[in-house]
Design brief:
single chain; two-stranded antiparallel sheet; 5 helices; binds zinc ion
């Protein structure tokens, strides 16, 4: 009987140790989850802040974050070009007016009713009058470069005065 008591004491001791370390693990996990939760909240807020700033300063070509803004804008333009490519792969096209994906051979956009033959002709004229290159990446970059060049002339003194980081 004495032996059994000793043995059961040892057992409950082991059990206590296990439950202690289990409790510690549970507490750690809870705290880590809380930290992760806070970090997610912060990241979401930072993302919203960044989006709001980007929306308010999309046209900025001067200022501390103008480089980042230009990079984001260029990525958005690249996405538009990729969407056009995707539509092409699918055998479809993008309505130049409303951006809907539509069949290539329709005369009018089924969504907004745009005259697609006219829109295609206008776009062609735009391209031939602008430049003779048909490279889509250059087409996408061109307006941004022109914009930046136009702005840098007027903003030259201020951008010289402000040291670039
Ligand atoms: Zn449309």
């Amino acid at each position: 009987m004495g032996l059994f008591n000793k043995f059961s004491d040892q057992l409950s001791g082991v059990g206590k140790n296990i439950s202690n370390s289990t409790q510690q693990f549970v507490n750690e996990t809870k705290i880590q989850a809380a930290i992760r939760d806070k970090k997610n909240t912060i990241n979401e807020a930072l993302l919203n802040l960044g989006r709001a700033y980007y929306t308010a300063h999309t046209e900025d070509t001067d200022g501390e974050f103008s480089g980042t803004i230009a990079a984001i804008r260029s990525e958005y333009q690249a996405i538009e070009d990729l969407k056009k490519q995707l539509s092409g792969v699918r055998g479809k096209t993008i309505c130049p007016k409303c951006g809907a994906e539509i069949d290539k051979d329709v005369a009018f956009c089924p969504k907004c009713g745009a005259n697609l033959a006219e829109a295609a002709r206008a776009e062609k004229e735009d391209h031939t009058s602008g430049s003779d290159t048909s490279d889509t990446a250059q087409d996408a970059a061109a307006p941004l470069q022109e914009e930046a060049a136009g702005q840098s002339q007027t903003d030259a003194p201020s951008s010289d005065a402000k040291p670039q980081k």
